[in-house]
């Protein structure tokens, strides 16, 4: 038996969808455990490019796809995603299972996400405006959270909803001077309509996963967002509201940590970030612009241009520690094909000190100057390589150095957007 958690090691958009797609081939199910439609995972097959936001990437392989209890789910977005995928020939509904304990994203969560960001001016987080933060805040406030399973009891749902909506309306007008107001009965009708569509998919997903664990099935847990956006381990306060790190899989699915066998960290061969917050190796110059164009670094979810920079080992050391990484899957290696020299950030200098792991304090990260080791480029296309030894020697050197500095072996490399442009290592490279 084998269950694998696949997580992002940086600030998101590492190519988790691609990696999940490979490991989903032999899996009995793919399970999302946190986040919501702030995620944007892409799987490209031939001319078709599937953008997944809420639905696990395993749907592309028509696997049972579970939305776990740790998620926050906007049913309107979910129905749109189902319709998009079905419109392109995938069977979706019969493969979807939604936790009754996952929380609902409500219309007022979207309004509050926007109002809070606008009110913060330059101090904003740069969220995806999907209502993720406000939905998790309500979950933890306990009195304001509504779960998918609550829709089963219409009268209970209505009774819970009324005082919540009254309070949100007061927040919007009195705190944010917003003119947006919500009507509890209209939301009730809207959400009952969604329930009519998705009610049959809502179930005890923890039990499903547990049975799969007992059978010894192969399970893939698909992390969304990333380590550096983790509410505890990320660049707080410029983070998302959930636990993308590997431990989140146990909590967000309802199986204990002893049932997780390995953790794969997905790392882009360089770094990108969307939204605000520290990013020590960011290139605010034409090299950064060049990487953005080469890598098509524009958000899958929001279309925003991503900030780009060199690979940062201090980030990866933090990810190795926070996730207990067994392996790295290095993506987008081909984007570095045209660089004669590739700087690799091996440490920071902060106030005269050498620091090797991403610091926790925001003010320290803002003062961090990267210390680069210059790696020779390979100036050769890698997109036709299908084994590690076929890679140009300097590309092998770059990867070996990453494995050595992080002390994590590499199990997979992607060298292009197509599904087959992968190198999956039978014997992972460990420097
Ligand atoms: P995937 O799964 C990149 C970022 C947002 C913002 C911060 C908080 O595609 O890798 P939120 O809407 O979650 O409250 O925004 O987190 N963010 C992501 N950035 N990829 C993602 O997901 C992200 N999910 C959230 O840009 O800075
Ligand atoms: Mg993405």
Beta-strand percentage range: 15-25%
Distance between the terminal alpha carbons, to the nearest Å? Answer: 28 Å
Helix/strand-derived category reads alpha/beta
Low-confidence stretches: none
* Bound heterogens, unique: 6-O-phosphoryl inosine monophosphate, magnesium ion
* Number of distinct helices: 12
Q: Using the CA coordinates, give the radius of gyration.
A: 22 Å
Quaternary structure: single chain
Structure description:
This protein is of the alpha/beta class and 431 residues long. The protein folds into 3 domains: 3-100 and 201-263, Adenylosuccinate Synthetase, subunit A, domain 1 (Adenylosuccinate Synthetase, Chain A, domain 1), CATH 3.40.440; 103-198, Orthogonal Bundle (Adenylosuccinate Synthetase, subunit A, domain 2), CATH 1.10.300; 267-429, Adenylosuccinate Synthetase, Chain A, domain 3. It has helices spanning 16-24, 75-87, 107-120, 132-141, 154-175, 184-198, 205-215, 247-253, 286-294, 313-323, 362-366, 393-406, and strands at residues 2-8, 29-32, 41-45, 48-52, 65-67, 72-73, 96-99, 103-104, 202-203, 218-222, 262-268, 271-273, 307-309, 327-331, 341-350, 353-355, 369-376, 410-414, 422-429. The strands form 5 sheets. A 10-stranded mixed β-sheet has the order 9-7-5-2-10-1-11-14-18-19, sandwiched between helices. A 3-stranded antiparallel β-sheet has the order 16-15-17. A two-stranded antiparallel sheet has the order 3-4. β18 (410-414) and β19 form a beta hairpin. The longest helix is centred in the middle third of the chain and has 22 residues, at 154-175. The structure holds 6-O-phosphoryl inosine monophosphate and magnesium ion. The site of magnesium ion has 5 residues, from loops.
